[in-house]
Amino acid sequence: MAFNENLRILTTADTNHADNFNDIYGQLLENTKDNQGKISILQGNIDAHLAENTTEIISVTRDVSLTGIQTVAKASAREIKSIFVLGVVQGTKKWCQGMYSKGFNPQVTYTAGDTGNYLIGTALCIFSNAGSADRTIGSITNITTTSFDINWTKTGVGATGTAELRFLVSYHD
Predict the structure, then answer these.
(1) pTM value?
(2) What single string gives the DSSP state of each residue in 130-161?
(3) Less Cβ crowding at N or C end of the chain, within 10 Å?
(4) Where in the sequence is the domain holding 40, given as residue range(s)?
């Protein structure tokens, strides 16, 4: 027997409870109509969240004794969600790993080239000859859909050597 037929029988059999039931049933139908729009919005958010996450690995080198802008080209023309970088000057204790996420300050862990001690900072890359005194610092400055820029600056005399950098770039399509 259909729901509406059950409702008709109930309203005929018990008129005292039928009015209350009709009120509740009407509210249920109205709430269902109101929530259809909310459900559609929620489904859109779920679909966006389930969009494919993609990544790209980019390898570049940099003479860390130099300052200036280095443009890193990307193979895919999509908006960057985050960047993770590993960098090393081979044959030395100079090493860094940095993180960038859209809307947040970048963070980096690096080693002092003279001691091998670990340090932290707020940049994408830092290479150090001597603690925090002589460093070359790489900061993300310009992000487009086809590239991103690293602005290399120095404290003290800066670091020396050629850094090999591996970027893991994440997108959310």
Answers:
(1) 0.69
(2) ETTTEEEEEEEEEE-SSEEEEEEEEETT---S
(3) N
(4) 3-49
pLDDT tens by residue, 67-114: 999 999 998 888 889 999 999 999 999 999 999 998 888 999 999 988
Residue entry with tokens 């001691």: 115
- Helix (H) or strand (E) holding 79, with range, is none
Q: In what order do the strands lie in the sheet with 53-63?
A: 53-63, 162-172, 80-88, 95-101, 107-111, 118-121
Query: If residue 100 lies in a helix (H) or strand (E), which one and from where to where?
Result: strand 95-101
pLDDT tens digit string along 124-138?
999 999 888 899 999
DSSP, collapsed to helix, strand or coil, labels residue 82 as strand
Q: 95 and 161 share a domain?
A: yes
pLDDT for the residue 7: 47
Q: 90 and 128 share a domain? A: yes
147-155: strand order across its sheet: 68-73, 147-155, 134-143, 125-130
Tokens read off for 139: 């900061």
